[in-house]
Amino acid sequence: MVEYSLTLTNKNTNQISRYILDLEEYYENQPASFFTPIVCNKIRNELQSQGSCHINDMYLQIIIKTWIQDIKEGYRDSNVVLDLPKINHQNINSLKGSGNQEIPQLIYPDLSDIEPKIGALPPLDFS
To answer: For a tag on the chain, would you pick the N or C end, based on fewer CB atoms within 10 A?
Structure first.
């Protein structure tokens, strides 16, 4: 078994998180088959706990794709730098915000100065 490591650096805080795994020869040749959803969630949870940052599905996909590509190319160490948001530990799973639902005040354009150029158009009447 060969040891592969992933180093995740958060651009916001420069905090570094590491994840190490041992791959058998079969998975070295086909690393995509190793990264099942269960393994990916385990990696996400470990990196989130180390770095106190939130890793959503898009970021996780970037991390896993980069790591798979590096393993295919024979690299034992992979480095990923992402702009990750800080995690809010309190009630992170129970957020139910609907956002700002107010309709903004309309701003009507001033069309009084609009005139046709060169006379190719009929007179504009916006009343």
So the answer is: C
Helix (H, G, I), strand (E, B) or coil at 16: strand
Distance separating alpha carbons of residues 71 and 85, to the nearest angstrom: 27
Under 8 Å between Cβ of 45 and 93: no
- Helical (H) or strand (E) element with 125: none
Place of tokens 């150029």: 117
Cβ neighbours of 41 (radius 10 Å): 11
* CA dihedral of residues 43, 74, 68, 7 (deg, nearest 10): 40
Does an H or E element contain 49, and which? helix 37-51
Contact 82, 62 (CB under 8 A): yes
Tokens of 106: 């309309």
Q: What is the pLDDT of residues 115-126, one digit of tens each?
A: 766 666 666 667
Question: In this predicted model, what pLDDT tens digit does every residue of 82-111 receive, in sequence order?
Answer: 988 887 655 556 666 677 888 889 998 888
The CA distance from 11 to 19, in Å, is 18
